[in-house]
Amino acid sequence: MPALPSNVRAGRVAALLLALQTAKGTPISDFSSSVAVRPWTLDAEVDLAALKSDAGGFMTEAKMPTAARHSVPEAAEGGISVEATPASVEWLFRSNWGEYAGFEFQLDTQVPEWLTIGWVESIAAGSTQKFTRIYDAWCHRLRVSAGLVGPVRIDASYAAEQDSDPQDLDALSGITLPGDYTPDQNVFPGRTARLWKDPYGDNVELSLHGIEIAFDQGLHTDWDMMRGLPLVAKRGFPGPTVDISFEAHVGDETWEILDANRAGTKAHYRFLATSLSPVRRFQIDLYDVDFEIEPLGHVGQGYRKFRAAGRAHLDSSGRFVTITLI
User: pLDDT tens digits for 33-74?
Assistant: First the structure.
């Protein structure tokens, strides 16, 4: 008879917590405070294991398969997928993009706010399972996506410099967990997602089937010999990129985009999603976007969908993306 596992973990009672640090090197210990939220996670990767070297990769190792391996110090990297709510939008974009002020996120040249990621294996009181945290973390890549059904989704890729040893939940020391783990449930439904071309001019709305907007700040990782820790930083040149791809019915509106592609002209596009209770607006303006477009035609008796992928560029006013949460 096979062995039975003990104290099996169940994902439905696990919780991931995000907390904004006041500074690098100051991990959050009180997750019940206003700096912390529990996002409505759909998927979470919590990178806690040490990477191992290849045999023969270091001068201290014999070049044979049986040689002992070393733990290689590397930045922890993982991904988090969440239903987009006002809270998850704010916390993830404050980490990736910059300060949230006047309903707008301000792009920062450095990592704007470092995150502590808390992982709670069970939210049941008195649990004998584990709690751990990853800190000095940065969401270097975000992907906002929406379809005809389901919520708007945000997929975040993070890298972190440090983590803490796991603790037993029933014997936590120096950590305060929230009394209420209920996430923000004011989701942005995918059916509210809309896309306009030239909102201050022609203001043409496209008939969307799906859309994805990707924000990539450019991750740089290295080993900091002075601190004896991994280094996580913005890559710098060539700077952040923001890409948009969408799928729509073929019509006069999409032919305008194809004509602009052939003519080499760019345009302003606006994405908007609206939550319902209370009403909040999550808006992304992309300036001077040009598109590459998949071939048209038909499949059987149906017309091919219009599929386009583009990138935002600096316009004459020095803008390329504006992100607002109202």
Answer: 999 999 999 999 999 988 887 765 555 555 555 566 778 788
- Evaluate the omega torsion of the peptide bond into residue 183 and state whether it is cis, within 30 degrees of 0: no
Instruction: Give φ, ψ of 73 to 5 degrees.
Output: -70, 115
Among 75, 107, 87, which Cα is nearest to 19's?
A: 87
Tell me the pTM. 0.93
Lookup: tokens for 79: 């991904």
Residue 72 is predicted with a pLDDT of 78
Query: Would you say 63 and 150 are in contact if contact means Cβ atoms under 8 Å apart?
Result: no
> Strands, E, within 192-276: which ranges?
194-197, 204-206, 208-216, 219-224, 229-234, 241-248, 267-276
Structure tokens at 55: 């045999």
Distance CA 279, CA 86 (A): 10
Cβ(30)–Cβ(17) below 8 Å: no
* Cα–Cα distance, 157 to 170 (Å, whole number): 30
- Quick check: 176 and 36 in contact, CB under 8 A? no
**216-261 pLDDT tens trace:** 999 999 989 988 899 999 998 888 999 999 999 999 999 999 999 9
DSSP 67: S
Strand, coil or helix: 174: coil
